[in-house]
What we know:
Helix content is 34%, strand content 13%. It is α/β, with parallel strands linked by helices. It has one domain (11-67, 97-203): Vaccinia Virus protein VP39 (Rossmann fold). Strand 5 and strand 6 form a beta hairpin. The two termini are 25 Å apart.
Amino acid sequence: MTGGNRKLWTKENTGLDLEITAVEIDENIAKIYKDFFPDDIVIVGDAHQYLLEHFKEYDFIWSSPPCQSHSIARYWSSKSRNNKYNYPPPVYPDMKLYEEIIFLKHFSKTKYCIENVISYYEPLVKPTKHDNHYFWTNYIFENSLKRTDRKVWRSRINELQKITTFDLSNYKKIKKQKLLRNCVKPTTGLYIFNCAFYSNELFKT
């Protein structure tokens, strides 16, 4: 979680004074997030459990459950099982994704967006698709955003840093390319956020 979705959530871009809380289980990633967004409240912990216990406390929720077990890349590497490259074995899809979708749909009165990667299977609940992400929201989110060329997401780290506007050159012991590829483009995150509070006709690009 580097905060791509949140990067442009400023008063200038949203018209709102925001108090943002981020929850990340990986302490190293949480520190990187805090470097980029020092004014945010950052909690090191299980975001899935935190959501269950605190979902009523917020005006807007953005959740990005673990995506690896749903991804097309993981599926094909597991299916091929090429030992030369130490590909991972097949695993069950992590159903925390659909737990959160179903839970928030039935219990949350606030606006929310749940984000995940494009899955190797037909989604169990229909999402809105943009770039290499799925989005589930409880408000109208018509995808009028310009699609990013798929080749872009296969770029090297330097190019991905330009696209996502995150410079990770000073950080070590993290999978930079993976983090950047999974990052939601800041302009996409801003568009989806503003659609929760304003007519999305105002934000078509």
